[in-house]
Amino acid sequence: MSLGGSDSIVSRRTWLKRLLAGIAAARLLAETRLKSAAAGEVGDIPRDTGPLTIRVTRPFDAETPAREFVSFFTPNHRFFVRSHFGPPPERIAEAEWRLRIDGLVEAAKELTLGDIRQMEAVTVTAVLQCSGNGRAFYRPRIPGVQWERGAVGNAQWTGVRLRGILRQAGIRKNARHVQFQGADRPPVPSVPLFTRSIPLGKALHPDTLLAYEMNGRPLPLLHGAPLRVITPGWMADSCTKWLTDITLLSEESDGYYMRTAYRLPLDPIEPAMAGESDRTRPVEAMVVKSLIAAPPEGATVPLAPVMIQGAAWGGESKILSVEVSLDEGKNWQTARFVGEEHPYAWRQWQLVWTPRAPGPVSILCRATDETGTVQPLASPWNPGGFLWNGWDRVTVTVGG
Ligand SMILES: Nc1nc2c(c(=O)[nH]1)N[C@H]1C(S)=C(S)[C@@H](COP(=O)(O)O)O[C@H]1N2
Ligand SMILES: [Mo]
């Protein structure tokens, strides 16, 4: 885990103040949208949203129902969608689209999509997960999109290595962070741009991509077409969509979405926001997590063997085991892995359970990664509601 430079350490007071200001700005944004919706403007909801559960309509934020996660790859049209402002206000024609690389480089560059497609194509299978996935499970509740279990998916991403592009431009010695800017724009000027940065080390990793394909198809607009960042093993806030600008910096990117939002307290924090520590770090790597895809929540299952199945992932860490409990966590049984294994992808697992009596039963699961970290019953509370990885739970009724 990288803690960032001392520059990234903001006093807790300042941080909380900015966080609250950000929440106020988000509320203003929501109100503006409600007004324009009332004025009869066209919404952002794509026509075919059948398979997704909508959490916010403007912009369109929607999650995948957990029952879809029985498949190894999450199909593009069933993949969760999240952005702060929706796709760019004007769709850029592919021929006019440019990627600019500047800042602490030897020579600033401008690349066309053609230039990028001529470079060596690399494919990585990786889980993409919103930092706020599972926010709805924190108590006390936390403002923000109330994601439950499905702001996550597993896909094949094809594109070029970011490091190839950075090296073409020439990385200056004092460059430490790589900033990403997309073409999307906030609808009101008081809301800052979604500008993010990652440390140079992650940017130079051979698996960090600028992707133009998702699951073997052209990257859909909602998922960042024509080009997006993929930081395998890291939470999706680093995966800038609609990418147009890369800037090499000596410091972490300035601005609300890097310095205030998407940060975690380094020391445990009480929901009452007590505590005297003043250090935070950006949300980066994923934490060990698993979920139950089948049987689905609320299902009625027969009094006969039932196949329990799901997925588990650990970001940059391999999954060692998945365990299932049918007695509220008193006893755990080890599930068996099935299907493919790739770094950064999720691992599918199964367990056959023979119910003993009719009635309601909760199925719980928890994963352990190669560092020995076990998914906790509940994740430590934090003001942004990030990185939820508590045991997953599905309640079913055993029929007579
Ligand atoms: N340009 C841009 N990129 C962005 C965002 C955004 O608001 N603007 N949101 C980020 C967040 S918070 C998430 S969770 C992922 C969601 O990616 P998806 O919609 O492809 O699932 O995109 C990331 N990339
Ligand atoms: Mo997110």
UniProtKB/TrEMBL annotation:
Cofactor: Mo-molybdopterin
Domain of life: Bacteria
GO molecular function: heme binding; molybdenum ion binding; molybdopterin cofactor binding; sulfite dehydrogenase activity; sulfite oxidase activity
Secretion signal span: none
Top-level EC class as recorded in UniProt: oxidoreductase
Location of the Oxidoreductase molybdopterin-binding domain: 87-257
GO BP annotations, alphabetical order: sulfur compound metabolic process
Alphabetical list of Pfam families matching this protein: Mo-co_dimer, Oxidored_molyb
EC nos: 1.8.2.1
InterPro entries per the UniProt record, alphabetical: Ig_E-set, MoCF_OxRdtse_dimer, Mopterin_OxRdtase_euk, OxRdtase_Mopterin-bd_dom, OxRdtase_Mopterin-bd_sf, TAT_signal
PROSITE patterns: TAT (PS51318)
CDD domains for this protein: SO_family_Moco_dimer (cd02110)
Swiss-Prot/TrEMBL keywords: Metal-binding, Molybdenum, Oxidoreductase
Keyword Oxidoreductase: yes
Residue ranges annotated for the Moybdenum cofactor oxidoreductase dimerisation domain, each copy included: 283-398
The protein's name: Putative Sulfite:cytochrome c oxidoreductase, subunit A
Source organism: Nitrospira japonica
Lineage of the species this protein comes from: Bacteria, Pseudomonadati, Nitrospirota, Nitrospiria, Nitrospirales
